[in-house]
Task: structure prediction
Amino acid sequence: MSVREFVVLGTASQVPTRHRNHNGYLLRWDGEGILFDPGEGTQRQMLRAGVAAHDINRICVTHFHGDHSLGLAGVIQRINLDQVPHPVTAHYPASGQKFFDRLRYATAYRETVPLREEPVTVDGPLAQGATYVLEARLLSHPVESFGYRITEPDGRRMVPELLARHGVKGPDVGRIQRDGRLGEVTLDEVSEPRRGQRFAFVMDTRLCDGVYALAEGCDMLVIESTFLDEDERLATDHGHLTAGQAARVARDAGVRHLVLTHFSQRYTDPSEFERQARAAGFEGELTVAEDLVRVPLPKRG
Result:
C-alpha cells in the first residue's frame, strides 16, 4: 500500500532551541523517501522519528547555510555505514559544490553506496521517479537557493457506476485501465480525470516568482515562516518570509494543506503563527510544524 506523508525532523531556523532541532524533513512518496535540508542533528532526529537511512532515495538541499546542510556529513556517512542497498541521488545548488564536497568528505569513512551528484543550475525538471516529476525553482536569498516541487502525472479514476453501465467487471477493469479499451468500450467511458498530487518545499526566500510557481495548485505546501508579520522589514532584509506572507501565497495559489516551519528562536508562542496565517485569509488545512510530527498528504481530490 502506498504511503505519502511528510515527516518533520526539525523546525528551527538559524539557532536551535530546547524544543526545536535544526531543519530536516523527509517526504515519503509511495516507495521512495526524499530528505530535504538536513541540518545539524538530523541523524539523531531520524532515529527518534523512526526514519532509517534505507528510507532515503534522494537528498534535496535548498541552499548552503548551516541550518540547512550541516547534517549532510552525518547522513551521508550513515547511508554508507548501513550499506543502503540502492543508489542515493543528491540535488543542491551547483554554486555550492565546494560546500557539498567538504560535507561529503568531512571525515574518513568507507564508501559503500553510490551517491549520485546532480547539482541544480536552472529552473525546471530535475528527475523523474516512478510516480512523480521533481523540479526546482530559483528563490531569493543572500546565497543561491532553490525550492523543490513534486508533481504526480494526472490520471484516470474508475467510476463504479460507469463500469456497471458498460458491463465491465472483475479482471476486465484492470485490462481496460492498462490497454485503454475493452472491445467497444473506451477508458474515457468508464472513468473520470484524476488530478495528480502536488507537493512543494520552499525554504529561505523573500517573495519572488519562484515562490508562486512552486506553490501553485499544491495539495501540500511546506514553506518557511521565519518571522511574524510585525517583523516583515527584518524578514525582507534577511531574505525570509513572515507567517502572513506565506499564508497569502498559499491562499492565492489554492493550496489545500499549508505547513509552516523554520521559526526564529525569538518567538515562544507557536499559536501566533497560526493566528497570523488565518488573519491573512488562508482557509485550508494548516499545520504549524513541531519536531517529529507526521503530516499525511491530503487525499486525492
Remarks:
- The chain has a mean pLDDT of 96.
